[in-house]
Amino acid sequence: MEFIKPGIHLDFVGKMKYAIIFSTIVAIISIGSVILHRGLNLGIDFAGGSIIQIKFQKDVSADQIRSALKSTKLESSIIQQFGEKEFLIRTHESFSDQTILATNVVQPLTTAFNKDFEIRRVEVVGSKVGADFQRKAILAVILSWLAMLIYVGWRFEFRYGLGGIIALIHDVIIIIGTVSILNMEFTITILAAIFFIIGFSINDTIVVLDRIRENVKLNPKQKLADIINLSVNQTLSRTILTSLTVFLTVLALFFFGGAVIHDFALALLVGVVFGTYSSVFISCPIVLLFENMQISQLKRNK
Q1: Which of 48, 136, 139, 297 has the CB geometry, 3.0–4.6 Å to 127, for a possible disulfide?
Q2: 3-class secondary-structure state, position 72
Q3: Contact at 8 Å (CB) between 213 and 70?
């Protein structure tokens, strides 16, 4: 199946300078947002705290639960509904002690709803464990970049690997910026979305870069800019079909998946869009820039 007929000749290289300006502005806004917010809004997985899962026997709302927990340590916590009559309460307070849990959760809810509820799960993450998760998450992302740089550089050429990794860094910055601008909690699910996009984006990028490499071998005397245009046009149908399929699937999760995976799906939506965009408008300009730098260096040496 082909979404776009063969023989199309869109001038992607001619638009790349505008794309770089756009990406630079978006990246600056993303980094600026993180700085202005003094870091990300870390979830319990990274900052420490408690998750309490409660199932009620009758229909209640999050506002009713919040009112019942007024004047306790859970008043400012995040309350999310998932499933039927079930709620998750996320708080940065530690409820590892049963007495504290009874005072701040069981007793207020009993007063408001009698005993028509059941506490099904209590998870507690210590601050030290959360800090350790932060370090490991950052290390995991950086190591994934390095591993892909080594593989792509070895499998193809260094310039292709460099283009692919800069595209990945671009995608991660945009996702983190979206999380920061919308003041979303940065949780393990958001981290999972980042790793998914890293894999998705590098796969899409390699398809484009591999076609560029093949066309360079077939037309060694042709200008690299023309080869990039040819290669992107040749892979455009595959790129759109693949990305559109993933996008529509994630879009369904966003609208029908419920509140629990809403942020995860949103991060994936942003990642899929910018991951597809960076495969053409970030990785390819880096390859072209690297080529031009090598040509300039050769001219100076002569």
Answers
A1: 48
A2: coil
A3: no
Residues 6+ apart with CB under 8 A from 19: 277, 281, 282, 285
Domain ranges, ordered by start, for the chain? 12-42+129-301, 49-124
Give domain 12-42+129-301's CATH number out of 1.20.1640.10, 3.40.1190.10, 3.40.190.10, 3.40.50.980: 1.20.1640.10
Asked whether 87 and 57 are in contact (CB, 8 A), the reply is: no
Q: What angle do CA 271, 50, 190 make, to 5 degrees?
A: 5
**Per-residue tokens: 100:** 């504290």
Count each helix (H run) and each strand (E run) in the chain, helices first: 11, 6
Task: Centre a 10 Å sphere on the Cβ of residue 242 and count the other Cβ atoms it contains.
Answer: 18
DSSP 8-state code for residue 257 = S
The rounded distance, in Å, linking the Cα atoms of 289 and 270 is 27
With the C-alpha atoms ordered 130, 132, 135, 140, is the resulting torsion angle positive or negative?
A: negative
At the topology level of CATH, where does 49-124 sit?
Answer: Alpha-Beta Plaits (3.30.70)
Per the listing, tokens 């600026």 go with: 32
Does pLDDT of 29 surpass 60?
yes
Of 178, 283, 268, the residue nearest 228 (C-alpha)? 283
pLDDT digits (tens, 9 = 90+) for 241-291: 889 999 999 999 998 887 778 889 999 999 999 999 999 899 888 888 877
Pairing of the two strands 185-186 and 41-42 = parallel
- Phi, psi torsion values for 125, nearest 5 degrees: -115, 120
